[in-house]
Specification:
Number of domains: 1
Mean pLDDT: 96
Largest sheet: 7 strands, mixed
Radius of gyration: 17 Å
Strand content: 25-35%
CATH architecture: 4-Layer Sandwich
CATH superfamily: Metallo-dependent phosphatases
Low-confidence stretches: none
CATH class: Alpha Beta
Number of strands: 13
Number of helices: 6
């Protein structure tokens, strides 16, 4: 049985530090073969940089995915072309720079991963995530033994619908973006592991990773404020999936939470 860990949105320095401190030990404890992490909030809570991406890879992450904050850091659109284990969402316009999928391997088994952005309540220009997933799955035939689809989306209904739509065609459909781990981890009837949101890797004494007081204040008066990344109750959160290598189907999925 192969094991894959998908780590939810890494938020700022606290999220990066717990990955650096705990991931290698976690890999050994659970005999994890593959680690994929969403790093789109890794740079002060918004975007990623080349140095941060490299540090996450050095910490034991095999592949980094991104979401709607992909272009937040100045110069990243150029830097990302120098790092071959980071991919942008696959349903952005094809003229956008960067890889739209990654393939990683362990023990002779190849895992492809790509991200699609949801379109409900999301502001970025993106192709339909359902049709984009169809296109990517067709492209990846023969290139990988298993496919992991990340849906970076706001609406739980959109995430659930994509899970059912892809059931039996991919090994897992995993949600990110909302930063709150959900209690719906399941292997669907066709053998596809699903979870609406694998959670946030960062400070949980917060509002989605940001300091509480300024967020509450903005809800009260609507005035703009700077939302600094919080610091306390830091956790690593992700989905651990067991994969049957013979069929490339998921056998088990569970939420994994590690406290600092």
């Amino acid at each position: 049985m192969l094991k894959l860990l998908f780590i939810g949105d890494i938020v700022g320095k606290p999220g990066r530090e717990i990955v650096a401190d705990r991931l290698r030990r976690l890999r050994l404890e659970h005999a994890i073969d593959f680690v994929i992490a969403n790093g789109e909030n890794a740079a002060a809570g918004a975007g990623i940089t080349g140095s941060i991406a490299r540090s996450l890879l050095e910490s034991g992450v095999d592949a980094i995915t991104l979401g709607d904050h992909v272009w937040d850091q100045r110069g990243w659109e150029t830097e990302m072309m120098e790092i071959d284990r980071v991919c942008r969402p696959a349903n952005l316009p094809q003229s956008c720079p960067g890889w739209d999928h990654l393939v990683i391997d362990a023990r002779g088994f190849r895992v492809a991963v790509f991200t699609v952005l949801g379109r409900s309540f999301m502001g970025m220009k993106a192709e339909c995530p359902f049709l984009a997933s169809d296109r990517m799955i067709e492209r990846l035939k023969g290139q990988a033994d298993a496919i992991i689809v990340e849906i970076h989306a706001e609406a739980t209904s959109e995430k659930q619908a994509l899970g059912w739509y892809l059931d039996g065609r991919v090994t897992a459909v995993l949600g990110t973006h909302t930063h709150v781990p959900t209690a719906d981890a399941i292997v669907l009837p066709g053998g596809t592991a699903f979870m609406c949101d694998v959670g946030m890797t960062g400070p949980y004494a917060s509002v989605l990773g940001r300091e509480v007081k300024p967020v509450i204040a903005k809800f009260l008066d609507g005035m703009p404020r700077r939302f600094e990344v919080a610091e306390n109750d830091v956790r690593l959160s992700g989905a651990l999936i067991e994969i049957s290598p013979g069929q490339a189907k998921a056998q088990k999925i569970e939420l994994v939470t590690v406290r600092k």
